[in-house]
Amino acid sequence: MDVFVKIMAFIAATVVQGTPLLFGAVGEIITEKSGNLNLGIPGIMYIGGISGIIGGYLYEHFCAEPIPILCVIISLLASLVGSAFIAFIYSFLTITLKANQNVVGLALTTLGVGLGNFYGGSLLKFFGEDGSISLYITGNAYKTKIPFLSDHLGIFGETFFSFGFLVYLAIFIAILSQWIINRTRVGLNLRAIGENPATADAAGINVSLYKYVATCVGGAIAGLGGLYFVMDYTTGAWTNNGFGDRGWLAIAIVIFALWKPRSAILSSYIFGGLYIASVFISGLSGSTKELIKMLPYLVTIIVLVFTSSRKKREHQPPAALGQSYFREER
Amino acid sequence: MNNVAIELRGITKRFGSVVANKGVNLTVCNGEILSLLGENGSGKTTLMNVISGIYHPDEGQIIIGGEPVSINSPHDAFNYKIGMIHQHFKLVDLFTAAENIILGLNEKGKFDIKSVSKKVAEISSKYGFDIDPNKKIYEMSVSEKQTVEIIKVLYRGADILILDEPTAVLTPQETRKLFDILRRMRDDGKAIIIITHKLHEVLDLSDKVAVLRHGEYVGTVNTSEADENILTEMMVGKKVELNIERPEPVDPQDRLVVEHIDCMSREGVKLLDDVSFTVRSGEILGIAGIAGSGQRELLEAIAGLQKLDGGSIIYHNPKTGTSENLRDKTPLEIRELGVRLSFVPEDRLGMGLVGNMSVVDNMMLRSYRRGKSVFVERHGPEELAHKIIKDLEVATPDAETPVRRLSGGNVQKVLLGREISSSPTLLMAAYPVRGLDINSSYLIYDLLNDQKRKGVAVIFVGEDLDVLLDLCDRIMVIGSGRITGIVDGRNATKNEVGYLMTKTDREEEKSDAE
After folding, report:
1. For residue A327, is it within any domain?
2. Rounded-to-integer distance, Cα B248 and Cα A306, Å
3. Rounded to a whole number, what is the distance in Å from the CA of A52 to chain B's nearest CA?
4. For residue B511, what pLDDT is reported?
5. pLDDT grade, residue B335 (50/70/90)?
6. Which of A50, A63, A178, B39 could form a disulfide with A116 if both were Cys (CB 3.0 to 4.6 A apart)?
7. pLDDT at position B371, please?
């Protein structure tokens, strides 16, 4: 029984670790489907986190009796706006000004991480406070469990229904985007743009508009990964560089999941499990632990080797990924 | 039945000082196929782009259904039920036929790919298309892709179809199938315009033929009253005397013997088909043909840039008296064999010269292997660059100017000068006077004649028939990768060459069908 409890605890931890990755991966998939390779996602996830923190802090700080549900709504909106704004900068530079996507993406990652750490470290000082940020009310509001299901189903309820709402939102967004991409006219147009923008343009589709919307929506979704981390995982506390390199793992998952949001769900949990595995294996020496911690990165490399040598056309990245679209002026 | 579908009146389109279309009149009725015939650069595609809304005409009127209309965008053209099938397909490879067909269409109601497939199947059975709506484009042959393009415009309800050289990429069997479908669409009351320069297709398929020559509208004839002679004469026009010098060849010897070479594209289309000919020293061999008939592949095969599927290219070395087979050798191997071959490619700043490098550095592209130490030797190339600039009167500030800043004529002088400087025994020049003014053109002709007098075997690929007839000793005509004839430049007529250019071997097609 002890082992069973431990396995269930591991599964729960896997889901917790996988959720930020899932948001990031789904956001990046939507972006890449439009032909934009947004390497700014790791930075955008930091921005998503810190924007939520700023929104939540301002409300908690200036309101005498903060209402939990408003805490959630305000920080959620702040997070969405913050990360969509960075994605908008990316869009403007790469779509309108046709700048190199890799360069812009990497620059935005540096910017995002830097901004996150800057505000994380100095937000309190602006308002004359000391110490570090901790938004207990907001954080605990995010952690609210599903009533009834979480405490009436024994260990299953504790394992599968005890997460905050963002965990379920991530799964819902993944399934919804899979449906939109594959089953709707909008999705068909979006895929056409990622594959062959000139053809899409000739068919009368507004290529730039689609790219802007997909990149900004994708950025906003990815930002929720950062928000989940700071609000739910660390209960409203910010630590500099606390989010770590999860953003890059999210980008690796995009490849692992072969650009399918649905496959990203399981992929994210696998990567999340590998990320946390060292904690759950008992009796490891310090050095072995470090080796286990390498697993996600090792898997990423192996996955890259396999996917790049795979021949099936459906498993390849969007054909026009990473290229700016110039309409031929003739 | 015979009501006019679309009428053009006095359409003129200029690009800067170049007149691409001048006073074109055209009428197509419903249930009629019109062929638009003309050489390269005669303005066929420009005219079709005017109809499909990509260009706006400077003068003239377009009348559809009795009303003058203004077509300002491809979207407008679509509203007037005009559908254009481009030579280069606009399809998403990863999508199925059905997905491509409805791409960008904002039909009302639920998005349902199954009902699209059903409608596609209806159109297919009506006109005799053979297509699986759920097949992915990347699994399709060229002719299947073309079918998808045609169904795409029919699905959108087009009544006027324009096909830009639809048979260029098809095999004879596929062409026949396409023509059957086009006839069925004609019988269904559609108006069809087909752009082509293959005479027998024109006579085979169309009801009327409109001919353009150098952008000017020559006239329209009923196909029943036309034959190949009439059409060729309308297409190429009368001979113009250019007074280009043509010295008599002195002691011609076989320099290059090409025998039965074949070359296949990746799509399985024959680019060169059993090509055999001989190039002689002290002689200019002209190559005439519609653009893209295999001229490029032929020259690149000789230069060692194109892999062949069969045949041999034998070079007779005048110095040593030995013979070498150049087939499938790299340019470097060819040079090491002692073959002094110079190649002036069609794409001057792509294959011939490096635009961002100076005149001197471009000279070094030919000589960088010389010199004893790890450093390149610059004195020789510098002298050569100055010599070329002086001798050929290249207009450039100095020898260190990047060649991309020079005008087209001067770029060509630099390239030709460099190629001639290595005193070749075989000189190949592809479209060396394209885009050059009259004076520069004559200078190039003189340079080629100089080489000829020196006993160089010269191959000259040209597009202007008047020039070919005045400059070359023999003219070889290539059509769809095949040699359709070799004529004597001194007594051949323009009609003769023009006819050979548009001829495809019909005997062959008949045997294919059996």
Report:
1. no
2. 66
3. 37
4. 43
5. confident
6. A50
7. 66
Task: Please indicate, yes or no, if residue A323 is contained in any of the structural domains.
Answer: no
**Chain B residues lying within 8 Å of A189, measured CB to CB:** 103-104
User: How far, CA to CA in Å, does A278 sit from each of A241, A269, A284?
Assistant: 20, 15, 8
For chain B, list residues whose CB is within 8 angstroms of any CB belonging to chain A: 54, 74-75, 90-95, 99, 102-106, 111, 136, 138
CA B126, CA A188: separation in Å to the nearest integer? Answer: 27
Q: Shortest CA distance to B485 belongs to which of B265, B246, B272, B276? A: B276
Please write the tens of the pLDDT for every residue from B245-273. 888 888 888 999 999 999 888 767 788 98
Q: Which of B45, B499, B511 is nearest to B236 (CA)?
A: B499
Q: How confident is the model at residue B461 (pLDDT cuts 50, 70, 90)?
A: very high
Among residues B123, B477, B33, B102, which one has the least CA distance to residue B294? B477
**CA B272 from centre of chain:** 14
Domain that holds residue A263: 2-315
A199/B90 touch (CB, cutoff 8 Å), yes or no: yes
> Tokens 């990047």, residue?
B402
Question: Which ranges in B52-171 belong to alpha helices (H)?
Answer: 74-79, 97-102, 113-127, 142-155
Structural domain count, chain A: 1
Query: How many angstroms separate the CA of residue B108 from the nearest CA in chain A?
Result: 11
- Beta-strand pair B191-196/B32-37: parallel
Contacts 24+ apart (CB under 8 A), B97-100: B97/B131, B97/B132, B97/B133, B97/B134, B97/B135, B97/B137, B97/B140, B97/B148, B97/B151, B98/B133, B98/B134, B99/A188, B100/B137, B100/B148, B100/B152
The residues of chain A scoring below 50 in pLDDT are 329-330
Contact A192 B74 (CB under 8 A): no
Please judge whether A192 and B102 are an interchain contact, meaning their C-beta atoms are less than 8 angstroms apart.
no
Q: How many CB pairs lie under 8 A apart between chains A and B?
A: 53
CATH of the domain at A18: 1.10.3470
Residues from chain A that touch B96, judged by Cβ atoms under 8 A, are: none
- Position with higher pLDDT, B446 vs B434: B446
Query: Tokens standing for B328?
Result: 């499938």
Residue B510 pLDDT exceeds 70: no
Domain-embedded: residue A320: no
SS3 of B151-190: HHHHHCCCCEEEEECCCCCCCHHHHHHHHHHHHHHHHCCC
How far apart (Å, rounded) are the C-alpha atoms in residues B467 and B433? 10
Interface test with A, best of B15, B49, B92, B106 (most A CBs within 10 A): B92
Which of B92, B136, B138 has the CB atom closest to A192's CB atom? B92
Question: What is the ipTM score, two decimals?
Answer: 0.86
To test the contact with chain B by mutation, choose from A181, A186, A195, A329 the residue with the greatest count of B C-beta atoms within 10 A, namely A195
Q: Considering the domain boundaries, does residue A237 fall inside one?
A: yes
Nearest residue of A to residue B100 by CA position? A192
Domains of chain B: 4-236 (3.40.50.300), 241-340+424-514 (3.40.50.300), 355-422 (no CATH)
Spatial contact of B159 and B4, defined as CB atoms under 8 Å apart: no
